Structures are given as structure tokens and as C-alpha cells.
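Worked example

This section walks through a single chain of length 388. The input is the sequence exactly as stored; nothing has been trimmed or padded.
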Amino acid sequence: MFSAKTFKKLSYLLQVFSKIDGRYQKRLRSWEDFKRIPVLDRQDVKAFTQATLIRDAFNVTATSGSTSSRLLVAHSWAAYAAHLRRLVKIYRHVGARAGVLCLNLCSYELNSGGRLMEAAYKAAGAGVIPLGPISTPEKVLAAAQLVATFKPTIVNAYTNQLFDLFDLVGRKHSIHHCVVNGEPLWPEYRRRIEHMGGVRIHDHYGAMEVSGLAIASKPDDEYMKVFSDGLLLEVVQSSGKASETGVGDLLVTDLNNTCMPFIRYRIGDKVELVRRSKTLWIKVLGRSEDSLLINGVVVLKRELIRAVNNFLGHPRFFFVLVKHSLQYYDKLIINVVDEAPRPFAALTQTVARTTGMDRCIDVRAYHGDIPRTPNGKIRYFIDARKKA
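Given that input, the structure is written out below as C-alpha cells.
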């Protein structure tokens, strides 16, 4: 599996990481040796950061911390350049080129890839309108005005922003392609937004730690084309067996990030990797820890969100999980934003069927601002548990 160049890079990464963890001092002689290297997770990477061993960092970013504590990530120049090259290939794959204008609705804060995305569109030859996330009605209106004035043909956005934008502008616009970052869209929801806006939507898969990995070529294909330049990808089955293709937890090794090595790093997603005519494709199955324990019932968050999204036909809702202060049970509260007061019995029944719960579900109309992450994405779950 290893070329001489890859072997040399891996050996150096192991040498660097062994300064804080003795498990990584083993010399590599084969692919089997590599598969015996312990898997990294967020805590291992945080330990490296806290040990202040980072040298020659060119770019610093962070995860949003919407599902767990924030993670600062330092990229070397070589890693940044490799990430940029992958993004350029991904964006060119969906039409970015000279003469094309992109409206960028991704965040420009520290915990985002907005600046890297803008640089990649420009490197692909496209122009960029750097608006940033549209997390309020005023920002949605500003985005619509920019679309009317400058007539971009590509929108680079997070999942729920497209619904807000096309709910306002409809089909009267210049946009042809939308690149969606973050959680992959469910087919039903993607088709709804495509119908609303008369556009073609491409799921873009990646992670803040290693940037972009893959892009959806065809709307009806659940698999995305992988651009793995500078990365080694593995899947690890529940048995612990690792392979280059198959179903399991995704592991990523960034061969270029020498200032902060990512070696067999567990991204946190369950995926399927397949090869088609020697090209690698990926299907994202969900988060590895995508579950809630509610009154003894295991509920998959992804399926819960999907059920409510399909029922309402829009993403303007969020969940609060409450532990009653006097009684020992959990209550799942579904807050539907900007809905007129009306009975939600049918939605309650839908959620009950999806979750296997027969009680402790409450649906409410909510008229405040919808909670969002720092990146502008809807914060679906708020854990409001209290100690009894």
C-alpha cells in the first residue's frame, strides 16, 4: 500500500507523535504494521495540543464544539496547501471556474473553514462574495439582495441555510449549483430544496481537522467521490479489523500535517468506502455516537431529525432534552419555530413511532430566535438535564 514517499512521511509523523505517546515509536515495515498503530481520538489530539509541542503552524482553526468541547487544530504549510488542492479539485468538479461567481455563506470565524473555502474557489478561478453565515432573517434578506444584484451561479453554504434562502427568493435567481457543507442531506429534504430553488445540490463531505474529502456528483447517488490527495483513509469494523474499503468507523491519516500529526484519527463518522473503476467513493452512514438514551430507549438522533424534517417539510425546529427535577423521567421537547399555535398530535405520533417512545414527548410552537452553533447551523439538541 505504501510508496517510498508515503512511508517516509509516515515514519516522520510517528517520530513526532512519539514525543508524547510511547505507543507510536514502532518502526513501520508493512501495511500490517501500520494497522497495529493505536487509533487516535479527540483526547489524544488535545493532549498533543496541551503538551505545546506544536511547531511551525501556518494555520489554526477549531471545531465548533456543538456536539462536544472545541478542539483547536494547527496545520502546517504543507497540510494547508494539500487541503487547498483537494478543495480546488472538489469545487472544479461541480463547476467552479473562471467567470463563475460564488456566494459563500460559510463562517469566517476561527472555528470555520470559510477562509480556506474562499481561497479554494479563487484558486479554481471563481470570484467569491464573502457574506458569511445567514443565521438571522436580516442576513437572509442581505443574501437575497446580493443574489439579485451580483447574480452568483454557485452558493457555498451549510445545510439549513439553503431552505431559508430559497424560501425567500424562490426560483427567480441566477444560482445553478449549491455546495452543502456539514451533515449530508437526506434525499427527501435535498429534493425538496432543489424543487424550491430549481437548483442542483451537491453534498460536500469533510472535517475541520483535515478539510474536504469528497463531493456528491449526482443528486440521486448516495455515494460521494473521494479526493484523498495527501490522506490515507481506512474503515475499522466493530471487530477491530481495518481495511481500505468496507463499512465501519472512518480513520484518517494526514500525511502532510507534520506540526500536529493526525495518525489513524477517528473522525467520528460511520461510513462505507467502495471502489468504482479504481476511484474511491464514500457513503456517510451517520455519526458513530449518534444516539440518545431517553427513558431507557436508544434513539438515533439522525433518524429523529429526519422524521421531524420530513413531517414539517422545513428545518426550523430544535429539540430540548429535559430531566424533570422532581420526577425520574426524561422529556423530549420539540420546538417548532414560527409555527402558528395548532395541535401537533400527528407530529407527536410520528416521533413516537420513530423513537419507540410512547410518552414524554411534547411539541411546542416557538417564537424566539432559533438556537444556532457558532457556524450558523441549527443547534438541534440542547441538553437541559437537571440532577434530581
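What to look for: The chain has ten helices and 20 strands.
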